[in-house]
Amino acid sequence: MVTVRQEERGLGRNFHYLLSAYSIQTLGEGVVIAALPLLASKLTDDPRLISWVPLATELPWLLLALVGGVIVDRYDRRLLMIGAQTIQTLLLVTVALVVTLGGTQIWMIYILAFGLCAGDIVFMGSSRALIPTVVRGADLETANGRNVTAETLGRMFLGPALGSALFVLFVPLPLWTNAVTYVVSIVLISRIRNAAGHFRVTPVPGATEERRGVVAEMMEGVRWLARHRVLRIVVLLAATSNFSVFMAQSITVLFARDVLGVGDAGYGILVAAMAIGGVVGGLVSRRVVAHFGTRSVVIGVSVASALSLVAIGLFGRQPVVVVALFGVWSAGLSVWNVMAQSLSQRLVPNRLMGRVGSATRMIAFGALPLGALAGGLVAAAYGLTAPWVIGGIVHLTVALLTLPALLRWPSVIEAPQES
């Protein structure tokens, strides 16, 4: 089997191309993530309609993730990444032209958000499935830690601040900027070569196996995940956390404006500042996971994150207070992501990496649009602070219910990949 070359020393050139591509494309996503709610808020003040922007942004994870996993396991993963970002770029350019010409309708924002996320299913699944083939198993925490730090810096820290600034300067500029970052990402991915120096990496794991129906292949990944007790609980808690935080984040643009008194430019700065904890968490995540082990990370992050959401709802009336409290949640997210990705890459057979990963993301990320929908309804009925409190209580309740099972885990979980 021809595989992407694993360098003998360090993480290797191929990983750095992969990391650079992921870094630049997540920066572009951060830019547009901040811009789309701002654009929607210019068209409506209805918190339900505003919440549909993040709902559309994450809905493909619920609807398309399983199919995406089959695609990732069937075809060359680098070519899939390039193809997905090419389509995303064309979609961005189309909508950017419409916005530039002044013909924006809110349904266009929903379609753009949905389409970008659909492309991310293939791009992210392919990227994460490639990591174990370009770095050694002992380097997974280091590689994933750098990936998570890059994602936090781009999507949550630098991107939103830049996106809001560009939005104030010229409304469609964030869309054009995101399109450019995707083009740069495509160029970087094209630099990855296999051991023979060729562009195409074939066959992918499992590609030489006899293919069955799409549904049968999807269910193989779902069944594998359902049978694995450790990953099953990790995914449940991740889904609960995502549902809870997105109840609040779906209306953050209104919360910032009406509760915190932050304007359009300040909104991006606020979102970026809220991610500072995530940057710190990404930098120390490898050492935290290695020192405390999987079990302690799962318990500690779940409880602390839930309490931080409740505290924001009860006490977050000043931007600095919200930033400090949310920093606890974002730091925990970075540590959690490194732990969960490394654990999955060690436990899941590579031939099933796309399908098990897609089943995982369907559940964990599929909770995001449900949380956005719930957050819009709760905010409309009970006010803009209620989603923080209710979301935190939901998260804390599930964390406490799973605590007995978590305490039965070994402190450090290791297992060889199955063939």
TrEMBL record:
Signal sequence, renumbered to the chain: none
Residue spans crossing the bilayer: 21-40, 52-72, 175-192, 233-255, 267-285, 297-315, 321-340, 361-382, 388-407
Keyword Transmembrane helix belongs to the record: yes
A GO cellular-component term linked to this record: plasma membrane
Keyword terms, alphabetized: Cell membrane, Membrane, Transmembrane, Transmembrane helix, Transport
GO MF assignments: transmembrane transporter activity
Residue ranges of every copy of the Major facilitator superfamily (MFS) profile domain listed in the record: 230-419
Domain of life: Bacteria
Name by which UniProt lists this protein: MFS family permease
Organism: Streptosporangium saharense
Lineage of source species: Bacteria, Bacillati, Actinomycetota, Actinomycetes, Streptosporangiales
